[in-house]
Amino acid sequence: MANNAVEVDTLIEPSWVIPINPSNKVLTNFSIAIKDSKIVSIHPSCDNSTRFNALDQIKLDDHVLMPGFVNTHTHAAMTLLRGYADDLPLMRWLSDHIWPAESEFVSAKFVHDGTLLACAEMLRGGTTCFNDMYFFPLHAGQAAIKAGIRAVLGITVIEFPNNYAADPQDYLRKGLEARDLLNSEPLINFTMSPHSPYTVSDKTFEQISVLANQLHLPIHVHIHETKTEIEDSLKQYGKRPIARFDTLGLLSPSLVGVHAVHIDDVEISLMANQGSSVVHCPSSNLKLASGFSPIGKLLRKNINVAIGTDGAASNNRLDMLAETRLAALMAKAVDGLAETLPAHQALHMATLAGARALGLDDQIGSIEKGKLADLIAIDLSQIETQPNFDVASQIIYAAGRENVTNVWVNGERVLKNKFFKNAISDTISQKTSFWTTQILNKRTN
Length: 445
Ligand SMILES: [Zn+2]
Prior knowledge:
Helices cover 40% and strands 24% of the residues. It is of the alpha/beta class.
């Protein structure tokens, strides 16, 4: 070891690095150095012994190191309703099953326990940051901190009352209060999250728009998910939701529109011109029979498209690798072009595009010096990922979340050789079985 070696916390020496920025690059025999929460160096592995003195040096043969996935749309606590009501269209699924179950069970404890389950599932699958839209954000945030995952929590607003809040003002007050209480937490960020065009009034949208501007927060909202949503909007407002958003001044680089399934060319141009982001949730769109988002068209207009799993009640996996593979496959079929959404671009959507939508692209989403160390290692040595001609293709088309072996969030190794750093698995099993019994008892009564 050289006398002038730099002291770092961790040195990771994988076989390959996909930095995401610059794009379309695979670095062979490069290492990453981490100090505190940040990436401090990306360098040829042959320099490790002369340049660095690490507390922890980790050699990962046949592994690729890449930024963690950014799950840009989910409802984490709904993981407790996974498989509760399946094979139904959106409005019947919501009105007849999900909303009644939520009014029965949703509480601070339900949200904490459900979010903890979701966080563990996401970490094991390589997600290091998730963008959440749900109730009781303070308790969702506490669960994320416990699990050691980065969370972007919604200041969620819906026009009608539930167990969490009485009216839009109450939702806003409680969401802003949670933001104040979690203000100093390094893993926590916030968005304004009006649920959708069909559950939020013009007056409330206007108020949210003002707050988002004042607080520099993105606006995270479901948009153009189903044909019914658009037909109802035409009846009630005389315009389609995106046109309504345009009138309300909501289209901007801060808008994170989730789904965008039924979107025409004029609306695509409008969103592109305003610099708004779209979150694509292909599994949810297929399962609820909502339709196929024209991802190829959105990408050709340079819209920032990120990937989300949506909630486990409509997917039913919080599996970003599976979601991104499906997105890549579906985009080709919908476009009629096999060249649409190649592997490297799909990896970009699952990482840096999500970070950009959330206003966090200066901090996460790529492996760059000075960025936060939110990293994952994927094992490509297994039978299912042999032979290996192209690392990016192997991740998108052949690997599964079971190939994720190690995960770092904010410089902390939260998953080590597939095991959690802290013993959260037992706690999660106990809490989940408690809620399963509660829900089953209610259903049979
Ligand atoms: Zn959703």
